[in-house]
């Protein structure tokens, strides 16, 4: 991820400036970003990736709205609350949850912590736009994450990656370049222009596309409850981003 930023930084040719006002946002987002990676890997280790993608992307927008309302005393509109409720319903249908006990198991807790930490990252990225360019913001966060995770995994066999096949490296390049460098930077840029609440609402669409591509690439069946839950999530994004309710 860090290396893939080099040509992007060269293309934009914007001078990098660090000061007290932007370092606090960089430090906060770095801590939350690293926490998000740790929680997500633990969640996948003990649970299912499909469930994690739904829980994280459904509850992150909800928690973002709640954090904004709590920290900044910002009152959301009626149709936005309505969209959040619809988003929760869509997530419940996607997961086929029958009880709270089914949701609050070991792996789901990690995924819920992912949603909470990413909500914090979204809010910080919105306010960082006043102090630092989003590309520089993402670049420095990637450096901090690289250093921190290096010390975290120092006692592991780091060179084992060079024994992996072409599929592993394709996945690594896709995750590092497209999913992280490109997608995360665009997400940070969008949060500064649209606001953290509206930007996070688009995460409701992630399970829909994830399930779609899993069907195309992995030949996984798309069940009826997935289609219904996905459509409800799309409706949730519409209401959250709609400025006024129709008469």
Write a concise synopsis of the structure shown.
This protein has 247 residues and is mainly alpha-helical. The chain contains 11 helices and no strands.
Mean pLDDT: 76
* Individual helix count: 11
Give the overall shape, derived from the CA principal axes. Answer: globular
Specify Rg, calculated over alpha carbons. 19 Å
Query: What is the count of distinct domains?
Result: 1
Structural class: mainly alpha
| Order of secondary-structure elements | HHHHHHHHHHH
- Strand percentage, roughly? under 5%
Q: How far is the N terminus from the C terminus?
A: 47 Å
Helix content: over 70%
Task: Give the biggest beta sheet.
Answer: none
Q: Give me the count of strands.
A: 0
Pick out the low-confidence regions. none
């Amino acid at each position: 991820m860090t290396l893939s930023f080099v040509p992007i930084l060269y293309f934009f040719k914007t001078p990098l400036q660090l000061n007290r006002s932007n370092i606090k946002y960089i430090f906060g987002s770095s801590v939350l970003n690293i926490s998000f990676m740790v929680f997500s890997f633990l969640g996948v280790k003990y649970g299912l990736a499909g469930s994690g993608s739904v829980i994280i992307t459904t509850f992150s927008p909800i928690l973002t709205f709640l954090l904004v309302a709590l920290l900044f005393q910002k009152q959301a509109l009626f149709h936005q609350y309505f969209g959040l409720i619809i988003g929760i319903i869509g997530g419940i249908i996607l997961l086929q949850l029958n009880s709270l006990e089914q949701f609050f198991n070991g792996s789901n807790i990690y995924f819920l912590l992912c949603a909470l930490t990413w909500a914090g990252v979204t809010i910080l990225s919105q306010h960082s736009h006043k102090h630092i360019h989003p590309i520089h913001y993402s670049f420095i966060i990637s450096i901090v994450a690289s250093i921190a995770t290096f010390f975290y995994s120092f006692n592991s066999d780091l060179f084992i990656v060079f024994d992996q096949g072409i599929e592993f490296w394709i996945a690594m390049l896709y995750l590092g370049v497209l999913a992280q460098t490109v997608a995360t930077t665009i997400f940070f840029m969008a949060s500064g222009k649209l606001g953290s609440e509206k930007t996070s609402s688009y995460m409701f669409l992630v399970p829909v596309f994830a399930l779609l591509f899993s069907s195309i690439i992995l030949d996984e069946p798309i069940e009826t409850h997935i289609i219904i839950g996905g459509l409800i999530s799309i409706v949730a994004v519409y209401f959250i981003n709609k400025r006024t309710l129709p008469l």
